[in-house]
């Protein structure tokens, strides 16, 4: 999947860099307090962080690099050009690095492929944030996400984000033992079963009967799970309150 992830980073990153400068102060509808400028500067800083970690190699202090070695992007129109430079620098490092090269991450030692995948989904979600801000300010509809990339993004969400960023104490106790079936209707393989419990969320691929099922095109399902689209965009079967509790807990 590495080459696909690189293509996603380049495509979505170029779309983010091409956002209009005159919309930089447009609010992002789904991220209270953020504007398009916040999205551009945040995503560019994350690119610089990943670039620094990859260059440092195994043993890198990822927290220190994030705090000390990652310069913020400038404000105003200059942020867009600085973002493009950050994007290209990251792509250069990723393309020059063997995907199997050991590297540090925020979840311990992994390989460079971890960062390629993580960046692909980071920039995809934030490109939607940026496009939503432009659209709300009177611009065009956001260009849709690629369905294959979105399916992989859901897999990454279940394998990484839920495991490391959603502790069980954030889930309403009444949901423990409940299950959520995710079904991307445009991809026969895009199905997962999530189990909510006191230790958090566990997931496995496949089709099983669940407390609640969420069905819809894979890009829609991906964006609902990332809280960028309303639950009503999907078809919901079963106990809707369980799905709402999962989304409420997924504030990261």
* Major sheet summary line: 5 strands, mixed
Q: End-to-end distance, in Å?
A: 25 Å
- Beta content comes to 5-15%
The CATH superfamily of the largest domain turns out to be dinb family like domain
How many β-strand runs? 7
- Please give the count of helices: 8
CATH level 1 name of the largest domain: Mainly Alpha
Q: Nearest-angstrom radius of gyration?
A: 18 Å
The domain tally reads 2
Q: H/E series, N to C?
A: HHHHEEHHEEEEHEH
Percent of residues in helices comes to: 40-55%
What strand order characterises the main sheet? 5-4-3-6-7
**Would you give the CATH topology of the largest domain?**
Four Helix Bundle (Hemerythrin (Met), subunit A)
Keywords, separated by commas or semicolons:
252 residues, alpha+beta, Four Helix Bundle (Hemerythrin (Met), subunit A), Nonspecific Lipid-transfer Protein, Chain A, 2 domains, 8 helices, 7 strands, 50% helix, 14% strand, globular, DinB/YfiT-like, isomerase activity, MDMPI_metal-binding, isomerase
What can you tell me about this protein's structure?
This is Maleylpyruvate isomerase family mycothiol-dependent enzyme. One of its GO terms (molecular function) is isomerase activity. Keywords: Isomerase. Residues 10-131 form the Mycothiol-dependent maleylpyruvate isomerase metal-binding domain. The protein has 252 residues and is of the alpha+beta class. It has two domains: 2-143, Four Helix Bundle (Hemerythrin (Met), subunit A); 165-249, SCP2 sterol-binding domain (Nonspecific Lipid-transfer Protein, Chain A, 2-Layer Sandwich). The strands form two sheets. It has a five-stranded mixed β-sheet. Helix 1 packs antiparallel against helix 4 (78-96). The mean pLDDT is 95. Helices cover 50% and strands 14% of the residues.
């Amino acid at each position: 999947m590495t080459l696909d992830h690189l293509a996603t980073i380049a495509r979505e990153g170029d779309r983010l860099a091409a956002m209009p400068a005159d919309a930089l102060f447009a609010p992002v509808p789904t991220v209270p307090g953020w504007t398009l400028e916040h999205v551009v500067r945040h995503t560019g800083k994350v690119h610089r962080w990943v670039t620094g970690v990859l260059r440092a190699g195994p043993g890198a202090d990822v927290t220190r690099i994030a705090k000390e070695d990652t310069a913020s992007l400038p404000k105003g129109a200059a942020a867009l050009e600085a973002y493009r430079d950050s994007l290209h620098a990251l792509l250069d490092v990723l393309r020059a690095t063997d995907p199997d090269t050991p590297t540090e991450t925020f979840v311990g030692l992994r390989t460079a492929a971890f960062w390629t995948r993580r960046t692909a989904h980071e920039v995809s979600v934030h490109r939607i944030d940026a496009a939503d801000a432009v659209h709300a300010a009177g611009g065009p509809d956001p260009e849709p996400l690629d369905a294959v990339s979105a399916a992989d993004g859901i897999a990454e969400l279940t394998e990484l984000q839920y495991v490391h960023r959603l502790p069980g104490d954030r889930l309403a106790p009444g949901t423990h033992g409940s299950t959520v079936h995710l079904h991307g209707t445009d991809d026969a393989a895009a199905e997962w079963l999530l189990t909510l419990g006191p230790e958090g969320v566990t997931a496995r691929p496949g089709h099983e009967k669940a407390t609640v099922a969420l069905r819809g095109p894979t890009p829609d399902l991906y964006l609902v799970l990332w809280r960028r689209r309303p639950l009503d965009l999907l078809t919901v079967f079963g106990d809707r309150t369980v799905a709402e509790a999962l989304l409420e807990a997924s504030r990261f």
